[in-house]
Amino acid sequence: MIICPEFIFLHLHKSGGTFANQLLLKCVPGARRAGYHLPYAELPVSYRHLPVAGTVRNPWDYYVSWYFFQRQQERPNALFLTCSDNGALDFAGTIRNLVTLHEDPARIRVLEAAFPTEFMQHGLNLTSRCIAGIRGTGLGFYSFLYRRLYAGAAAPRIIPTEHLRSGLRALLAGLAVPAEPLATLFLEQAPPMNTSRHGPFRDYYSPALRDLVGLHEQAVILAHDYRF
After folding, report:
1. Segment 145-183, tens digit of pLDDT
2. Which of 6, 54, 55, 1 is nearest to 30 (CA)?
3. Which of 3, 115, 153, 215 could form a disulfide with 128 if both were Cys (CB 3.0 to 4.6 A apart)?
């Protein structure tokens, strides 16, 4: 979560937020970090008059990025280890477990025990209470994160990661944020950040897994008109 004098930026997991955070902290006067991956519900009341901005990603693409990012870590996080059976499962098996986590009480209990009781300043930054909230929602994990992050925010301005640089440029201009010329330089020259190595996301899906993600990620897919 970045608090700027003109608006609030909420950081959705694996959705271009690291790039956006760096842009704002480096180029927007008065911008400051107020927590990591925190939802709107954690924003102090004194700032709730400000407009809210954030990002979103094609859910099918999100799962590929998440999986390969964790695979490349020396110490994958508890969510990956739990859904992949400690790394034994492949992409399809792991993502199937993650997308249907809402209906898997045994895995949810494991994650409740593994996650911290208080918010941290790194990683996924869900507490044990947060992950318990997915139980019975019917939501895929990404839709769960999306709904949790933006819940309560009035008409948030959400930028698709597919148009991240142009969307951020339009956001700053639309809110008259005094970020020039550094913002233009950053948007033109800064490399992608916090990325993972993988091929086109469509290459990793069977028809069954494609449809499973499509079923449980309807909240995001319909809101942002995503297609496989």
Report:
1. 999 999 999 999 999 999 999 999 999 999 999 999 999
2. 6
3. 115
